[in-house]
TrEMBL record:
Keywords: Cilium biogenesis/degradation, Glycoprotein, Signal. Belongs to the tectonic family. Pfam families: DUF1619_N, TCTN_DUF1619. It comes from Scytalopus superciliaris. One of its GO terms (biological process) is cilium assembly. Residues 159-318, 328-515 form the Tectonic-1-3 domain. GO terms for cellular component: MKS complex. Residues 16-122 form the Tectonic-1-3 N-terminal domain. The keyword tRNA-binding does not apply. The gene is Tctn1. Part of the tectonic-like complex (also named B9 complex). The lineage of its organism: Eukaryota, Metazoa, Chordata, Craniata, Vertebrata. This is TECT1 protein.
Length: 543
């Protein structure tokens, strides 16, 4: 272009001016009006004191190490001189990294601006600006503008990105949360694909309960959600369910209640105030929101109440997919199903694991009739920490063939699709292949002497699953982690029965959980238990 030289001159003029004179900067000068040993940049040191130095503790002094080019003060000792003397050089240092700062176009970052102190006159303004969970300060201007502005929406993303605030027609979807203290702030935006759960306290008054926005259902569903950022396509927030909580804590689900129930002051009570909201957002694989629903918990307060605790939650589900339930986060929770899956034939291992139909490890489920043939297909989930045993009885006649009978019993014990892997943690994801433990299969066969091989056959009669787990992580809050799973199939020899004779054999399936956590070392003294309850917002803003 014709103006290449002018653009280059502008870029050169935008190079950062030195904020600090490195020749006067000395980070090892700690003593006032005294010489610091081996501090070659200390202005308090005399040539006689420099001659006693053995080395320079800080040989190079620079300003901002992120700049592409800057001045650097280099200090060294000339030990060959008599007496030894200090050598000082001021050089231009070039940053070898390709990620460096060439132009400082945000001038406000070059100096420390003293914060504005709160006063009775500006307190409300500062609270509105900085009192929310997130705030930003737009720079007054950018020093370098090398490109002409494009047409509107030319470079804007037409889909939601992870963590981006969910936009509505007036602002964003609100998920109240505690800020600084435990009081609710309505300025917290809900982030896309960010599952959140918050609790906070809101000031209430029975006389004014119908005028407090945060206590009304309308406050949480009156603004439609933008399907994609900065679009005209709207998604209305529908009411999924309403649960009413009485003063004694009893909850009742209102059947067919999908309308608004606004706060109502009645005598000394205020009815229909919002105690909890659970948003459920459905989105597509392209990052567009297609459905939004809210489940409410409404309650009542008396005139003695000065505040009320509210809970808020938001979850996301991709359209045309089934959510996989978790069994812990991260460790397994006792009583929840053990998650399992398999790898389809020909599917690359590193491409990920696919969960089975129920995403669970299952065993034979006993039936009232105790008939193995009737129990085929009935499965019970294996629940973490629960030792289980189940079984059935098989009536064998002389007319039964060996091979079909063996296959039928195998299907009864293992099911139609026995998984190949078990999740080591309760929240292991299918794409994290290292978080899945392969199931080891063992086969024990009971051999008996028989006159002819044709007169006997091997049929499976029991399946024993041993799950070895260990305590993982901190001693204060250990997490249950599965490290090994072994499935042992036992078979027995069945002799050919004479015509007209029958035989009944038991078929069993069992699961045993074994804790293999390493015992404490001899003389180890556990940490004392502190029996206290932290406030729910103790770790805010960290979850």
């Amino acid at each position: 272009p014709a103006d290449t030289g002018g653009a280059a001159q502008k870029r050169a003029s935008g190079a950062p001016a030195p904020v600090t004179d490195v020749a006067r900067l000395c980070v090892c000068d700690l003593l006032v009006a005294r010489c610091d040993a081996n501090c070659c940049c200390d202005p308090d040191c005399s040539p006689e004191e420099f001659s006693l130095f053995t080395s320079c503790s800080v040989p190079v002094v620079v300003g901002d190490s992120h700049l592409c080019r800057q001045k650097a003060a280099v200090y060294s000792l000339d030990v060959e001189a008599n007496p030894p003397e200090r050598i000082f050089q001021l050089i231009d240092q070039v940053n070898p990294s390709i990620f460096c700062i060439h132009a400082t176009n945000y001038k406000q970052a070059l100096h420390l601006r003293p914060p504005e102190m709160p006063t009775p006159e500006n307190f409300d303004r500062l609270l509105d600006e900085f009192g929310s969970a997130a705030f930003s300060a737009e720079p007054e201007g950018w020093g370098v503008a090398t490109e002409a502005p494009g047409p509107p929406d030319a470079n804007e993303t037409r889909s939601y990105q992870y963590g981006a605030p969910i936009q509505t027609e007036d602002a964003f979807l609100r998920l109240p949360s505690p800020v600084v203290s435990s009081w609710c702030s309505d300025a917290n935006p809900a982030g896309f694909l960010v599952n959140q759960a918050t609790k906070c306290i809101r000031s209430v008054s029975v006389e004014k309960c119908d005028s407090i926005q945060g206590l009304s259902m309308l406050f949480y569903i009156n603004s439609s959600i933008l399907a994609v950022p900065k679009s005209s396509q709207m998604v209305n927030v529908t009411v999924q369910s309403i649960v009413v909580q009485s003063l004694d804590g009893t909850r009742t689900l209102l059947e067919g209640a999908d309308g608004l129930r606004l706060p109502l002051a009645l005598d000394e009570l205020c009815l229909n105030i919002v105690l909890g909201v659970s948003y459920h957002i459905t989105y597509t694989d392209t990052g567009a929101i297609i459905e939004a629903a809210a489940a409410f918990v409404l309650g009542a307060i008396s005139k003695e109440a000065l505040s009320v605790q509210q809970s808020f939650q938001i979850s996301f589900t991709q359209a045309n997919t089934k959510p996989v339930p978790l069994s812990g986060n991260p460790g397994y929770v006792v009583g929840l199903p053990v998650r399992a899956g398999f790898r389809p034939q020909g599917y690359p291992f590193l491409a990920g694991l696919l969960t089975n139909r129920h995403s669970q490890l299952t065993i034979l489920q006993s039936t009232p009739s105790q008939d193995c043939l009737a129990a085929q297909g009935a499965r019970a989930p294996v629940r973490f920490g629960y030792n289980m045993i189940s079984g059935c009885k098989l009536r064998i006649t002389a007319a039964m063939k060996c091979q079909p009978l063996a296959q039928t019993l195998l299907d009864v014990l293992k099911g139609q699709s026995f998984p190949e892997y078990v999740a080591s943690f309760g929240n292991s994801q299918a794409q994290d292949v290292l978080d899945w433990v392969p199931i080891t299969h063992l086969h024990i066969s009971e051999q008996r002497l028989s006159n002819t091989l044709q007169s006997s056959c091997q049929i499976p009669v029991s399946l024993g699953i041993e799950v070895k787990w260990t305590k993982y992580g901190s001693l204060v809050n250990p997490q249950a982690r599965i490290v090994n799973v072994t499935a042992t199939l036992s078979s027995t020899t069945l002799k050919q029965l004479p015509s007209g004779r029958e035989r009944i054999i038991p078929v069993t399936s069992s699961v045993v959980f074994t804790d293999i956590s390493a015992p404490a070392e001899p003389g180890y003294k556990a940490w004392p238990t502190i029996n206290i309850k932290l406030p729910f917002d103790f770790f805010y803003p960290f979850v």
